[in-house]
């Protein structure tokens, strides 16, 4: 749950943005501060736009515009995720009135820590999407012939799956997870901890009438190196998920499913 700052926001104020900057992969980081006038209803993205148009630090030094990523601007795509005042979240939905209500209040912005920085606040989340392919997070459908009506599903089951389907692959749960570490070497992605995001998506597709055809493949991937047993149960993931996805429930369900699958395979002489 996000904690709103209850102080009444002062109109016409300026706030200080302290931004961790980096000119490119492998380059050193540095901090720069900017004094930004706050417009009514302003959020972090609108402040970053102001900085892009006025790239002058609080010391009066002209600098390069700060780079960030964004897409939907309504907390749906996850592209604008960054660390704001020490907590990972979406910047498009981060209101300045809540975070810096008084004249001179400061807001710190840092890139996510578990993904390589491309520049400034923009990170490369390719590993996150790769992890979805590890668990075959899709419904196998052959569109070349009519497969008939899909399987029936109860409203309760639909509701359960709907909650999981709200994931926007933002990466907050991965950035906050002590077990999910930054891995820049792509060769090691398939054996590094996959994280709560892909585990929960595996559950979503295992629960789909047609998606469950790939259940066995998903469980085998999640039983291997970097799979569900690497989770240390710290539960940071569920605390930071902006969509309130029951990630620890998913980890428990997938952990049990993986064990049952392994036992079945054993008795069928497949292991
Ligand atoms: S519960 Fe598991 S996946 Fe979630 S933060 Fe903890 S270690 Fe990471
Ligand atoms: S599970 Fe939540 S925190 Fe993790 S990627 Fe999906 S929406 Fe983001
Ligand atoms: S820009 Fe899409 S979630 Fe913020």
- Radius of gyration over C-alpha positions, nearest whole angstrom: 22 Å
* Integer average pLDDT: 94
Percent helix, as a range, is 25-40%
Uncertain runs with pLDDT below 50, 5 residues or more? none
Q: State the helix count.
A: 9
Task: Tell me the strand percentage band.
Answer: 5-15%
Number of strands: 7
Strand adjacency order, main sheet: 2-1-5-3-4
Described by its quaternary structure, the protein is: single chain
Structural class: alpha+beta
User: What profile does the largest beta sheet have?
Assistant: 5 strands, mixed
CATH homolog superfamily of the largest domain? Alpha-helical ferredoxin
Please tell me the total number of domains. Answer: 2
The small molecules bound here are: iron/sulfur cluster, FE2/S2 (inorganic) cluster
CATH topology of the largest domain: Fumarate Reductase Iron-sulfur Protein, Chain B, domain 2
Q: Quick one: overall form?
A: elongated
CATH architecture of the largest domain: Orthogonal Bundle
**Broad CATH class of the largest domain:** Mainly Alpha
List keywords for this structure.
271 residues, alpha+beta, Ubiquitin-like (UB roll), Fumarate Reductase Iron-sulfur Protein, Chain B, domain 2, 5-stranded mixed β-sheet, two-stranded antiparallel ribbon, 7 strands, 31% helix, binds iron/sulfur cluster, binds FE2/S2 (inorganic) cluster
Question: How would you describe the overall organization of this protein?
Answer:
- It is a single chain.
- The chain is an alpha+beta fold and 271 residues long.
- It has two domains: 14-122, Roll (Ubiquitin-like (UB roll)), CATH 3.10.20.30; 125-267, Fumarate Reductase Iron-sulfur Protein, Chain B, domain 2 (Orthogonal Bundle).
- Helices cover 31% and strands 13% of the residues.
- Helix 6 (195-206) packs antiparallel against helix 7 (215-223), helix 6 crosses helix 9 (247-267) and helix 7 (215-223) packs across helix 9.
- The longest helix has 21 residues, at 247-267.
- The mean pLDDT is 94.
- The site of one iron/sulfur cluster (SF4) has 14 residues, from helix 5 and helix 6.
